[in-house]
Amino acid sequence: MYKIKPEDKAFVEEFKKCPIGHHSPGLQRILNLFRGEATAGKYVLVCTTPHKQWALGVLSGIRGEPIRMTGEVFESLIDAEWYVFQRRWAKYTGEELTK
Amino acid sequence: MKNIVGYSDKISVCPGETIHFMVSCEVSHYKATLVRIIHGDTNPDGPGFKAEPVKSEFEGSYRGRKQVIRSGSCAIVPNHQTFEKLGSFSVQAMVWPTTPGQGRQSMLSRWDSKSNAGFILGLDDKGGLLLTLGDGTGALEHVATGRAMLAREWYFVAATYDATGGDVCLYQEPLKVHAKMDTSAELQQTAKVKPRHDNGAPLIIAAHYAQTRNGRTETSGHYNGKIDRPVLANRVLSRVEMERLRASVSLSSLGSEIVALWDFSKEISSDRIIDVSPNHHHGETVNLPTRAVTGWNWNGEEMCWRHKPEHYGAIHFHDDDLYDAGWEADFALTVPEELKSGVYAAHIETDDDEDFIPFVIKPRPGKANSKLVFLVPTASYMAYANEHTGVDGPLAELVAGRVLPLQPTDVFLNEHREYGGSCYDSHSDGSGVCYSSRLRPILTMRPKYQSWLGGMGSSLWQFNADTHIIDWLEQKQVDYDCITDEDLHYQGYSALVPYRVIMTSTHPEYWSKQMWDSLDAFKRQGGRLIYMGGNGWYWRIAYHPTKPGVIEVRRAEGGIRNWAAEPGEYYHSFTGEYGGLWRRQGLAPQKMAGVGFSAQGFDISSYFRRRPDSFNPRCSFIFDGIGKDELIGDFGLIGGGAAGLEIDRADFLLGTPPNALVVASSENHTPVYMVVPEELLANAPGMCGGESDLVRADMTFYETPEGGAVFSTGSIAWSGSLSHNNYENNVSRIMSNVLKRFLDDKPF
Ligand SMILES: [Fe+2]
After folding, report:
1. B314-317 and B290-293 strand pairing
2. Is the residue at B748 inside a domain?
3. Contact A36/B671, CB-based, under 8 Å?
4. What pLDDT is stored for residue B366 in this prediction?
5. In what order do the strands lie in the sheet with B405-406?
6. Exposure class string for B316-332: b at 16+ Cβ within 10 A, else e
7. A21 contacts in B (CB within 8 Å)?
8. Domain hosting residue B82, numbered range
9. Strand ranges for B124-202 from DSSP E
10. Contacts of residue B43 in chain A, CB cutoff 8 Å?
11. B61/B170 same-domain check
């Protein structure tokens, strides 16, 4: 499994500019780690208003168990991406990214 | 919360035929109307949702009632005097449990749940062999080995009961011995409770009898795993006698003590189980447990069940198998003559919820209303029916390249496993789902539904993505008929004879031999094919020989697979045909459409660039009005471009005809796009978008003998670009150009 290194910090800006789509190999490597997490504890979005609003949820990893909703709600998929990226960055590096 | 869902008994009907609708509604009333589906995409960046109300006989208000689904498979043998009159008995089988330790499970039972009468041989909570006896007056006795079996290991299990003294013997013997891990057990005990055999219950394998409601036998205690060669005898058998029954294939040696010996290797393609004893206590499987699976004695000598059925005497039962939800019908439609062919739905609504039950109205046989037919890929809809891949596995977010956007429908399906899985899912015991039926609500086959697989933007997949094509045909006022995969399968080439052009959906992935041959015949007769998607002609499927509305997929050998068929289980149980990719059977999609599956990714789409072939006069009609350097489809509702999701390439070695012109190719795909695994003979870096040349879609054209032609887009995302700029764009233009020329009778 890839371990995030101090020099990876440079990719945070790149992600913020374009969270979905073309990425440099360096950013892609980080995203493969983040997005490849096991289902237990994995973030998902549940659409609450089509094309307008999504609520953040967490998978249990246990088949059939309800998705636990965190209470966070987003008006755009891009905002949700940034939020989840921040959470995962903190989880893997211990560092809280500022907005 | 979802409070209304439904399904229909048929998926395709012509004028004069009747279709029934089954509804479960948890509030007091609901409204039903008929609508014609035009555009199921609710994306505000596109033309918006379009469904045309149609007057019908069923329009009106209905009383709601909840109908439930009882999933879980088993085999039921009708009750008989012989069972009722049992005293002493022996019961044995070879078993391969897949979830021992996950709740009590019944393997062979004659049990009445109301009075607790009879016996059940099964697994206890911990996964050890358990014999339950009930005398019908409330006294229950459990005799258990107390030693858990291992999952996915074969065991010989047996129980005997001596009615004179109440002696019980249990045998639990693993076929394979592991050092320092003894899971065998043999036990003798005297039971106080006398099992009551005259209990009126059917004999059930892999479950026990719960009750009969509305004429349907309901079962509980479903067992997960394989059962092979179960036997019931009317006296206490010795271990040696049992051994003879387990191994012997000679039936002439069976004595009168054998009440029944079920040989599951007989009539594998059917839903019958055969008792080879003279008593003929045949039974019927319920909810399609998996057949044509390797038995306890399979040794790799034969890979095809037809060649050595005696090695395929097992059935794999699952507690979440489902064939027919069996709901009662709420209303029906006899299709009036004047309704034009198309995609329709029964729209059912409560105050705060709704569902659409889609179906196709096709023309009467031989009565085409146009020269163009749109093939509605119902087999592919069934293969993806109610898929749970977004919540069940860790790969989804990686291939989607974004946090998974799930829909309320996905949340509902996650919590309601009784609605059954797709052929992308695994059963609760981890084995792959190889059958999928449409006799249940398929909530992923709905207008308005978005799928995480559908890319950024509209996020549509399969049924709802295909409404982009319907909408474009309507917008351009093109006459078209609709038929389904089932029509092509059952009617064969005759379903296509009246037409000049067949147009596919965005994703016609699953093909039976009959469907393939019908389309091939059409092409050979000069018929013209427009392939509007990607990943077509990929998996081979089989339809059940007698049961309607169910397909089988064996994920053999290669291809993108969420699960893999077990060794020795590559042949369809329904037909005995070899399953897996068509490509592995000498028929790569390139042979049908000039292009075949090459790469996939589900984040954003890209565009096409013209290639030198596009300036060949043979195909100048395609690019009429399109600039030399114009990028094609650098816009769209599916991932923002016309080239994306699952994409196909031309390959002359795989069967792209030598006269084919590759007129445009896509480029610049993201690193989330990866080359399909069947291309990887050896793993190597550089297999993703931006690196591998195989990550591309090839727009391809070629003429066929007899004056026909094929035009292939090679991209699932293609149709999402049709409506851009009020339907005035180069993707729409290319389609108009192609359709105009293809509808022209003049031979190519
Ligand atoms: Fe597919």
Report:
1. antiparallel
2. no
3. no
4. 83
5. A68-74, A53-58, A43-49, B405-406
6. bbbbbbbbbbbbeebbe
7. 401, 603-604, 670
8. 74-317
9. 129-135, 140-144, 155-161, 167-174, 185-190
10. 51
11. no
The verdict on B617 and B671 lying in the same domain is: yes
> Looking at residue B174, which CATH number applies to its domain?
2.60.120.200
CB-closest option in B395, B414, B603 to A20: B603
User: B468: phi > 0 → left, psi -120 to 50 → alpha, else beta; which?
Assistant: alpha
Q: Give pLDDT, residue B254.
A: 72
* CATH code, domain with B16: 2.60.40.1930
Residues B124 and B45 in one domain: no
- Regarding whether B62 and B158 lie in a shared domain, the answer is no
The Cα–Cα gap between B202 and B75 comes to 10
What's the pLDDT score for residue B169? 98
Burial of B598 (0-12, 13-18, 19+ CB in 10 A): buried
Overall domain count for chain B: 3
Whether residues B216 and B97 share a domain: the answer is yes
For residue B549, being part of any structural domain is answered with: no
CB within 8 Å: A77 and B403: yes
Give the span between the Cα atoms of B513 and B713, in whole angstroms: 23
Of B272, B287, B317, the position where a domain reaches its end is B317
Closest residue in A to B393 (Cα) is A39
| Same domain (yes/no): B339, B237 | no
| Whether B257 contacts B237, CB under 8 Å | yes
Q: Hey, where are the domains in chain A?
A: 6-93
Chain B residues in contact with A50 by the CB 8 A cut-off are 42, 448, 450
Q: How confident is the model at residue A98 (pLDDT cuts 50, 70, 90)?
A: confident
Verify that B174 and B257 share a domain, yes or no. yes
CA of B643 relative to ligand 1 center, distance in Å: 15
Contact state of B394 with A38 under an 8 Å Cβ cutoff: yes
Supply the pLDDT for residue A63: 96
Mean pLDDT for each consecutive 10-residue tract of chain B (748 residues)? 96 98 98 98 98 98 97 98 97 98 98 97 98 96 98 98 97 97 97 97 98 93 98 95 82 82 97 95 98 98 97 98 97 97 98 98 93 98 97 96 98 98 98 98 98 97 98 98 98 97 98 98 98 98 97 96 97 98 98 98 98 98 97 98 98 98 98 97 93 98 97 98 98 98 98
pLDDT score at B250: 62
pTM of the full structure: 0.97
- Note which residues in 589-628 of chain B have CB less than 8 A from chain A: 603-604
State how far residue B419 is from chain A, nearest Cα, in angstroms.
Answer: 12
What string of DSSP letters covers B543-574? E-SSSTTEEE----SSSS-SS-PPTT--B-TT
Task: Give the A window 9-68 contacts with B, CB below 8 Å.
Answer: 19-23, 25, 28, 31-32, 35-39, 42-47, 50-51, 54, 57, 59, 63-64, 66-67
Cross-chain residue pair B401–A35, CB shorter than 8 Å: yes
Asked if the structure places residue B524 within a domain, the reply is no
Q: Do A35 and B397 touch (CB under 8 A)?
A: yes
Chain B residues with beta carbon closer than 8 angstroms to that of A80: 403
Instruction: Look at residue B636 and tell me if it is in a domain.
Output: yes
Query: Judged by CB atoms within 8 Å, which residues 335-394 of B form the interface with A?
Result: 390-394
C-alpha–C-alpha distance, residues B105 and B345, integer Å: 40
Residue B238 dihedral angles phi and psi, to the nearest 5°: -80, 165
Q: Which of B43, B456, B671 sits opposite A20 (nearest CB)?
A: B456
Question: Is the same domain home to B127 and B202?
Answer: yes
pLDDT at position B41, please? 98
Sole residue written with tokens 């003049």: B746
Q: Sort out which chain B residues have CB atoms less than 8 A from A46's CB and list them.
A: 406-408, 410-411
